[in-house]
Amino acid sequence: MPQERAGATTLKGGPLTLVGPELKAGDSAPDFKVSKGLTEAVSLSNFKGKVKLLVAVPSLDTPVCDQETRRFNEEAAKLGDKVKTILVSVDLPPAQGRFCTTAGIKNLEVLSDHKEASFGANYGCLIKELRLLSRAIFVVGTDDKIKYVQYVKEVADHPDYEKALNAAKTAAA
Questions:
Q1: Mean per-residue pLDDT, 44-49
Q2: How distant, in Å, are the alpha carbons of 1, 10, 150 from that of 14?
Q3: Three-state SS for 98?
Q4: Which pairs from 66-74 meet CB under 8 Å and 24+ separation?
Q5: Are 65 and 156 in contact (CB under 8 A)?
Q6: What angle do CA 140, 95, 34 make, to 5 degrees?
Q7: Is the predicted pLDDT of residue 73 greater than 90, yes or no?
Q8: In CATH, what number does 10-172 get?
Q9: What is the pTM (predicted TM-score) of this model?
Q10: Confidence check: pLDDT of 39 > 70
């Protein structure tokens, strides 16, 4: 039975339950199985040897997620080839593809956790009541150890972009 953390996040002030462990810097990054497109499975090992900036968002079809995705797309282009920026949501792959085409998202690997929600459950950011991911950032080093974590308390708030980007730059240095 996966761990549940009642009240670990909120939506417009209302408490919600997160499924999975609360990860911390120094922990080993859990594996996950997500979808790229409708048929291709992707896991942590697909990004071996790279610093991974993992960005979890509830849905690309919301204003804050849209802005966050566009911001990380811009920033990812400046991080260099040692860092892979990966955005995960439970949106269906075709919807993700439409969003990325419309928004000009070219610098992010956008992946879907819709089938198994293994990213959300393994990274402790699956909202039990909504089966969406809460807003969270994880920087994982080339050694697959977590270097930085931010679970954004209020789902409608933006993450701390500067801290996340600085952690990714530091891990890649």
A1: 95
A2: 25, 5, 19
A3: helix
A4: 66/99, 66/103, 67/158, 68/135, 68/158, 68/159, 69/99, 69/103, 69/105, 69/108, 69/110, 70/103, 70/105, 71/161, 72/108, 72/161, 73/103, 73/104, 73/105, 73/106, 73/107, 73/108, 74/107
A5: no
A6: 35
A7: yes
A8: 3.40.30.10
A9: 0.95
A10: yes
Q: What separation in angstroms does the CA of 70 have from each of 86, 105, 106?
A: 13, 7, 10
The domain ranges of the chain are: 10-172
Active site residue 65: yes
Dihedral angle over CA of 168, 161, 17, 111, nearest 10: -60
Catalytic residue among 23, 34, 65, 88: 65
Q: How far, in Å, CA of 160 to CA of 146, rounded?
A: 17
Contact 110, 90 (CB under 8 A): no
Q: Which residue carries 């009642």 as its tokens?
A: 6
- CB atoms under 10 Å from CB of 24, counted, come to 9
Residue 119: what residue type?
F
